């Protein structure tokens, strides 16, 4: 999904902050690298159930709408990567949005399919005049996240370490973590998310069922809301995801209500490839 809200504070100062959070949804995931976030004992990653099947080779493509016009496109795909799973996500601004504030982001995240614990994230981000390469590794024996980042415009590099709990997800893997949960009406799940900064506590709430029509078709769906409970983005935005009400749990629509506006992701027709 991406990461959503991860840059919303900075986005408010940008001319057209369309896709800077990219990767879909999971979430108001608070990825800021300075304020402290506290993680409660109930925030944990649940292992996937025995009937869950990873959608390997399936790519989801979305258009991204902002103020009723198409501002960009986003895709996310899951594949095997040795003993791990790898999620690839991309976002690109288009049309007027690209002329005013171009965004071209590429994310890769790896995780253990048995535990859903993230093992690392790589990001190449081009947003306006900003270009960066970022790598995040999760060292669970030391309970530390290690962020390496290089500013491709200035050549400056930095390394930051932060504490993490025994298992975390990230803003990309979290997109699939949501699909693995038993999405029954009224259920609520709280889990830790890290993107190299302070770990944030995020809650997903299963709110209801709806019939949703998008370019890919008409679907019976389950609506899930996601928002941060801790960190600098608490109370600054909320995300809703509509998953198909079947075993596939296909994400067909996403809406992000942020302090600077609302973004709508709608699933496009695509083939397994």
Short account of what is shown:
It is built from three helices and 14 strands. The protein is mostly beta strands and 273 residues long. 42% of the residues are buried.
Strand tally is 14
Oligomeric state of this protein = single chain
Level of helix content?
A: under 10%
Structural class call reads mainly beta
* Strands side by side in the biggest sheet: 8-7-6-5-4-3-2-1-14-13-12-11-10-9
Calculate the terminal CA-CA distance, rounded to whole Å: 19 Å
Instruction: Report the β-strand fraction as a percent range.
Output: over 45%
Globular, elongated, flat, extended or rod-shaped: what is the shape? globular
Largest sheet: 14 strands, antiparallel
Whole-number radius of gyration?
Answer: 17 Å
Describe this structure in words.
The protein has one domain (8-267). The model is unreliable at 1-38 (pLDDT under 50). It has helices spanning 8-11, 95-100, 173-180, and strands spanning 59-66, 69-81, 84-93, 103-111, 118-127, 130-139, 144-151, 157-163, 188-193, 200-214, 217-228, 237-244, 251-258, 261-267. Strands 8-7-6-5-4-3-2-1-14-13-12-11-10-9 form a 14-stranded antiparallel beta sheet. The longest helix has 8 residues, at 173-180. By secondary structure, the protein is mostly beta strands. It is built from 3 helices and 14 strands. It is 7% helix and 48% strand.
SSE topology sketch:
Elements lengths: L7 H4 L47 E8 L2 E13 L2 E10 L1 H6 L2 E9 L6 E10 L2 E10 L4 E8 L5 E7 L9 H8 L7 E6 L6 E15 L2 E12 L8 E8 L6 E8 L2 E7 L6
Relevant terms:
273 residues; 14-stranded antiparallel beta sheet; 3 helices; 48% strand; disordered N terminus; 14 strands
């Amino acid at each position: 999904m991406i990461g959503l809200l991860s840059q919303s504070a900075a986005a408010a100062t940008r001319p057209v902050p369309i896709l800077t959070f990219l990767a879909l949804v999971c979430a108001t995931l608070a990825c800021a690298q300075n304020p402290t976030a506290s993680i409660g004992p109930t925030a944990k990653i649940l292992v996937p159930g025995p009937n869950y099947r990873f959608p390997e080779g399936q790519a989801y493509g979305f258009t991204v709408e902002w103020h009723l016009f198409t501002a960009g496109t986003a895709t996310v795909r899951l594949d095997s990567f040795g003993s791990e799973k790898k999620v690839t996500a991309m976002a690109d601004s288009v049309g007027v949005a690209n002329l005013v504030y171009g965004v071209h982001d590429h994310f890769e995240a790896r995780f253990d399919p048995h535990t859903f614990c993230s093992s690392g994230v790589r990001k190449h981000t081009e947003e306006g005049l900003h270009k960066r390469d970022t790598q995040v590794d999760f060292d669970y024996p030391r309970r530390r996240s290690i962020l390496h980042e290089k500013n491709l415009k200035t050549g400056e590099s930095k390394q930051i370490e932060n504490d993490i709990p025994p298992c975390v997800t990230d803003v990309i893997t979290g997109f699939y973590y949501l699909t693995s949960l038993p999405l029954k009406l009224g259920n609520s799940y709280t889990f830790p998310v890290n993107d190299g900064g302070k770990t944030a506590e995020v809650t997903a709430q299963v709110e209801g069922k709806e019939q949703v029509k998008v370019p890919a078709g008409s679907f019976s769906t389950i609506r899930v809301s996601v928002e941060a409970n801790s960190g600098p983005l608490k109370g600054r935005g909320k995300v809703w995801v509509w998953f198909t009400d079947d075993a596939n749990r296909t994400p067909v629509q996403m809406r992000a209500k942020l302090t600077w506006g609302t973004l709508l992701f709608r699933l496009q027709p695509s083939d397994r490839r």
